[in-house]
Fold each of these.
Amino acid sequence: MKLDATDLRYVTSDEFRVLTAVEMGSKNHEVVPLSLIVQISGLRNGGINKLVGSLAKRNLISRVQNAKYDGYRLTYGGYDYLAMRALSKRDSMHSVGNQIGVGKESDIYIVADAEGNEMVLKLHRLGRVSFRAIKSKRDYLGKRKSASWLYMSRLSAQKEWAFMKILSEHGFPVPKPIDQARHCILMSFIDAYPLRQVSEVENPGKLYSQLMDVIVRFAQAGLIHGDYNEFNILIKREDGEPIVIDFPQMVSTSHENAEWYFNRDVECIRTFFKRRFRYESSLYPRFRKVIEESGETGFKLDVAVEASGFGRKEMKVLEEVSFFYLILWPSLKLIFAVHGSCKGYRRT
């Protein structure tokens, strides 16, 4: 789903009331009945059909075919508009520019405030086509078979916001968080490029040490990135310093699989430097040693994040999805690439 903010200024206040009503109705209904939309929006039944038709034509809501009743779902387009309207009303964001990145679970855009200062808008989009196809065949979400991807995306954004905010406040090399609404995060723009685009560096040993030091600093603060690789590390053009991004999968060092996540982060960096720069070092952090040296006393950021409002319940819900994205899905993609389509799965 590509963000299109062209029509945002033309959406009326009544149409936004309908969008909000569909969103609120989605908390208890997979398909929101028209009667409930009328009730929540407080609009007259006679005019609601025109508003719903206008929103459906813009692909901000979608009518569900073959439903037992006349019902609608909020689309990512509608969710985008609700989030951007919230950011605009708070004077956090004024205009939307070009898309600068796309990932397996997010889209990245350049935006600006009223003074023209550039920022980055990240829209979380869990439930891409490939994941939905798999979910229809296998229940990787356990009991959460009817999980709303909009809700999961919102949780993902809230988690990333909580971690980015606490990391920024404590001097970690991360973008500065500016605002958050629904599934969107607004953050500072950094003139940098992904590590995956770097073909050579003047001193690979120095950069290697810097990246390993960040892993250690995270762990000493009670955190593990969980997806620490060349795709989620930026190199600043100005001074070559690394910036770490993408935190929805971050876990606490007290997590039951913490050592596995830690070792994987370390191995991702070692493998990349060996492959790209032909640099290999026998020095790399060990989880147990780092934890022992950090001690059990002192301020732990994982505790602070939970205290900020994003607690264990929300973490557990997201982990069900993150496990698929980070572990099962890469393995399935490899299988599909080798064996081609099988049992109805599409090669991606």
Amino acid sequence: MLQSRVSFLRKFHSSVCSSMRVIPVPVRKDNYAYLLVDDTVNEAAAVDPYTPSKVKAAAEQLGVKVVAGITTHHHNDHSGGNEEFAKLFPGVPIYGGSHKSPALTHLVGDNDRFTVGKALDVKCLATPCHTRDSICYYVTDTSSSSDGARAVFTGDTLFIGGCGVFFEGTGAEMHAAFELLRAALPDDTVTYVGHEYTAGNLRFARSVDPENAGLARLAGIVDAHPVTVGRTTIGDEKEWNIFWRLASDAVRVATKTEPDTPPSEIMDKLRTLKNNFKG
């Protein structure tokens, strides 16, 4: 099963990128770990490797050396594999936004940078809200053969068509996080999120904004692909993610807000609607 999955993903992601490949590794019920691969040197970083044995098996199948661990935030379903990962890959750096994440070796903050392999530049974007230590990792391929590939690992801040719960923050902070991503990331940046929540996010978004043409396109992706990650971009989120469209008429009607209502208040109301949504 792993061999067939990795073979498919190798083909799909090679067609999207040049030196950079991203391999989703499903873990737990609906989480994603990832291998971020620099094909110029066959080296990879593991993002949120909750089940390190699965990540190791995928790396071996692909013939790549794991040289780093990356943690998006400290919640157990993302950082809970770090200690085992450190034992499987001794001496490998583990990056993250706070020492609440086990086995962390390299603390990073907003605008910090590091390199994976030889060609992959990683920029850290601090997006506190879901947790105080949430970091989104923006990756660009700097190799001479690059086709301009860009990717972002968002953990539980941004989901395809949705956003994370405000466990340690507020609507104002999630709005600020999304504005940061909007400003920092080109539209063609491919998104890699922390959970396969796309179908549920789509149902809620349609209950708020049923006439949005982008949501019809997202529905086609959901219907055709059980693994939706790696198929959408930041430009897509601007079109179909209702948490990025707080000024739209549909969102204002759903949240019962006025044109002069602050975006932070709209964000809070919209997230509350999502929390209570039963569809």
Amino acid sequence: MTAKYPDSNRCASAFIFSSYSFSIAYPLPTGINIRTTHVPAVLSWNSTYCGDGGCGRPGLGPINFNTYKVESCGNVTFHYPFSMKDQDDSNDWFKVICNKTANGEKVPFLNINGTNLQILDFNFLDGTVKINHPITYFNLTGTRFYYSDSHNIFWSLGCGNLVTFFGNETDNFIGGCLQPSCRINNKTSSIIGCPVTIPKGLSSFFANMSDMVDSSDYMRKRSCGFASLISYDFDLTNDFDLSNRTHVPTQLQWGTLISGECYLNDS
């Protein structure tokens, strides 16, 4: 631990802590103080160690499957259960709307709760669809989709803020992170991934940003920023432009993942 404010007189702790202890009953390690000697942690005894190559499917090669009624719109290819054709009422959630832009390009959309969200990619084996998600609050409750816990990560942009994430606007705390101080690298912004475990079946989230910089500090720098759920493969760089950005790529889960061999029928 390195003190970034030499004139301050503070004590602090840094330790490994079990993410499984972040639950409704024990949301934060609030009881940590200078006299704390033990905290919950999880040990692994490598019971599933499969060697340096990992635990794969040796000798079986790539997984091949027959797609059913492959369709495309623009540069996105998709198939069952998604379709551009009229479907039964029970499958209207998977109706793809293919619109033409002013320059003649075709762009696919999903209409979720009355909002058209652009489809960026489709992955059948993962049961996910990547969409252009608004940075502002959005709710998937009551739909056939939820935010993927394995293909998304919470990210924040800015400095000197405490970022906290909730399941909705009022409660259901999920986690958070503290952005680096603006005084560390003399920048007004930083891009960090928040080490927050995304709960399974998350249908909505709300981000809150609290300024942690002392307003009386003469070296204080103001920072604009945002916090949101973003697809894990999105390339965030220091050139990330927030001023004109209203949407970020986010992965929605439409199918439930089941471990084991899967046999696909032709229909």
